[in-house]
């Protein structure tokens, strides 16, 4: 059994901050679950261009409002508390936090190690 709190992740190597986001990585590949679980904050007014070529990402918005744009089709979908969006086809996308910081619970498959850094396309490298 794994029991872990968000508070236990804050201030550790699993707590990653950038100008537009803050990712609190609660479960990672080392937990050997096949997926990783992240509590992510996207800063109000931020815009992030992302594309997960090697991972499927499921996102559940629990705070704030924004939108996600499919960069291939131009379709824009509003996001708010209770909304789920899944990047099941590795879509390049633009994530925008519009009203308040947007807090999102994210699940990555395969699991992230927690040491990944976005490349120039906004992707993470393939899992080892």
Q: Distance N terminus to C terminus? A: 25 Å
Measured by DSSP, the beta-strand proportion falls in over 45%
- Major sheet characteristics: 8 strands, antiparallel
Give the low-pLDDT segments. Answer: none
Radius of gyration using CA atoms only: 14 Å
Instruction: Based on Cα principal axes, name the global outline.
Output: globular
Quickly count the helices. 1
What is the average of the pLDDT values?
92
CATH topology of one domain: Jelly Rolls
Q: What share of the residues lie within helices?
A: under 10%
CATH architecture of one domain: Sandwich
* Structural class designation: mainly beta
EC number: 4.2.1.108
Pfam family, one: Ectoine_synth
Family: Belongs to the ectoine synthase family.
GO molecular function: ectoine synthase activity
Descriptive report:
It contains 1 helix and 8 strands; from the N terminus they run H-E-E-E-E-E-E-E-E. With 128 residues, the protein is mainly β. It has a domain at 10-98: Jelly Rolls. Strands 1, 2, 3, 4, 5, 6, 7 and 8 form an 8-stranded antiparallel beta sheet that branches. The chain is globular, with a radius of gyration of 14 Å.
What does this entry show, briefly?
The chain is mostly beta strands and 128 residues long. The chain is built from 1 helix and 8 strands; from the N terminus they run αββββββββ. GO terms for molecular function: ectoine synthase activity.
